Amino acid sequence: MKWPPQEAMQAYLHTLQLCNTHSNDEDCPLGTRNIIQPQCMEFISALAAGNQAKLIVQVTSYQGINPLTIALAVAAKHTKARFVCILHQLQDLENSRAQLSCYDLEDAVELVHGNPCEVIMEFKNIDFAIIDCKFEGFLRLFQIIDVNLRGSIVIVSNILERRIGASISEVIKGRTGVECVTRSIGEGMELTRIGLMSCCQPQTKRFKRFHVITFED
Fold first, then answer.
1. Mean pLDDT within 19-45
2. Nearest-angstrom CA–CA distance, 204 and 140
3. Would the pLDDT of 31 be above 80?
4. Which of 15, 204, 207, 214 has the greatest number of CB atoms lying within 10 Å of its CB?
5. pTM confidence score
6. Relative orientation angle of helices 40-50 and 67-79, to the nearest 10 degrees
7. CA 65 – CA 93 distance, rounded (Å)
């Protein structure tokens, strides 16, 4: 897949600008750095934009939208991608829209109420996803999420909350032909890149294989 550096750079700088502008703004608390590591928001925004994601999905916990929502919304705004944020049923839609409006991003996000395990099944060939491990059904999401096999990225946040259960890379490893490589680059976040390869066996039959690279941040 061709990497468009201009779109990635624009998303990175836009997210950085929002973080700096609203870092101490009590009316726009999502721009603060106290719950997201420095440069994490900018990196994820650039990653989504640079990978030319057409369908982006975020599964939040009971805490609702967060700084990662802003990062993805910026990427979607620059690439004209469809970004769907699945909210916990206890979250107020109007309040979430009001928070997004602080950053002029309310039009870049589709807010959806419902059980994430049910809602996410409505979306096929997801290019970029973020799943919060504070959502108790995260393991089920790993099993049913329909990602774009030609190239997609799944980021799992709050992995320190994952006291039990497998990681998404471990779930994918259970499929025939899957390869996973894990790299630790910090705490709290796990990034898995999924791609599809073909290999030929001596019988000249073609087999589809997943190629997965996982990073932890």
1. 66
2. 36
3. no
4. 15
5. 0.81
6. 30
7. 10
Q: What is the pLDDT of residue 2?
A: 63
Provide the β-strand partners of residue 211. 179, 195
Distance (Å, whole) CA 172 – CA 170: 5
Distance of CA 42 to CAs 7, 19, 49, 50, 85, Å? 13, 9, 11, 12, 18
62-99 in b/e form (b: 16+ CB < 10 A) is eebbbbbbbbbbbbbbbbebbbbbbbbeebeeeebeeb
Between CA 201 and CA 211 the distance in angstroms is 17
CA 15 to chain CA mean position, Å: 15
Helices (H), the chain: 5-21, 40-50, 67-79, 93-101, 116-119, 138-144, 168-173
Cα separations in angstroms, 107 against 81, 84, 201 = 12, 11, 49
21, two tokens: 């502008």
Query: Please, which residues have CB within 8 angstroms of residue 129's CB and are 6 or more apart in sequence?
Result: 56, 57, 58, 59, 145, 147, 152, 153, 154, 155
User: Rg for the chain (alpha carbons), in Å?
Assistant: 17
**Confidence bin at 61 (pLDDT 50/70/90):** confident
Tell me the C-alpha distance between 85 and 166, whole Å: 24
Using one digit for the tens of pLDDT, what is the confidence trace for 176-193? 554 555 554 445 788 888
CA distance 11 to 79: 9
Please provide residue 185's backbone torsions phi and psi, each rounded to the nearest 5 degrees.
-125, 20
Q: Which two tokens stand for residue 152?
A: 């997609």
Alpha-carbon torsion (200, 202, 205, 210), positive or negative: negative
